[in-house]
């Protein structure tokens, strides 16, 4: 049952707890296998788009529940795999917010690159080496811009997803000023959560090297750890605790 969020004590991020909480659940293996199977199914059905998206939404909805439970201080943050329809519905907001930000940030540079590639082909056919060189330089610069924007989005997006999850409305994820303020209020804890995110993403890749199927279980685990970590950042944010007064559903 949902509980009202409470202060987290000294306000520090429990770095070790991020790597313990998952395995402290007595049913962690069963929950991980279900999550891994859904993650695998989402990847295999990706060419069908709709089916793959719905399975991905289920695991994203589950991660949102983990974030909510972390925020309210639940000692067992892993929820049961029940009510798949609600998980899917909640997860579609998560996936939608992620894709919307990707389009907003990457669409214009990507389209410019396509235009330049076409122009470069025309310059090559016309034996215009000078124009071809300038176009190649412009394409390289745009790739650099995409890299910078991608890194910035990677830092910013967890704040948007966290606020959307806790405020329980899609619009909160697009409130740029408020999302940045959330990061600025919690620089140390946010940095620790971000480092945790990078570490578990790397660990998920190790799962791919060890065993192809293992990738999907470790990827699901990484998703849950990232959700728990940013839930802890929110838990230590007294301003957010005052703003989000309603209990988190499903927590």
Provide structural commentary.
This protein has 251 residues and is mainly α. Helices cover 77% and strands 0% of the residues. The longest helix has 42 residues. The model has no long low-confidence stretch (mean pLDDT 84).
Distance between the termini: 6 Å
Rg from Cα: 21 Å
Instruction: Assign the structural class, choosing from mainly alpha, mainly beta, alpha/beta, alpha+beta, or little secondary structure.
Output: mainly alpha
Number of separate domains:
1
Low-pLDDT runs: none
How large is the count of helical segments?
A: 9
Q: Largest sheet at a glance?
A: none
Structural shape = globular
Helix proportion: over 70%
Can you write the helix and strand succession as a string? HHHHHHHHH
Proportion of residues in extended strands: under 5%
The chain-level mean pLDDT equals: 84
- Total strands: the figure is 0
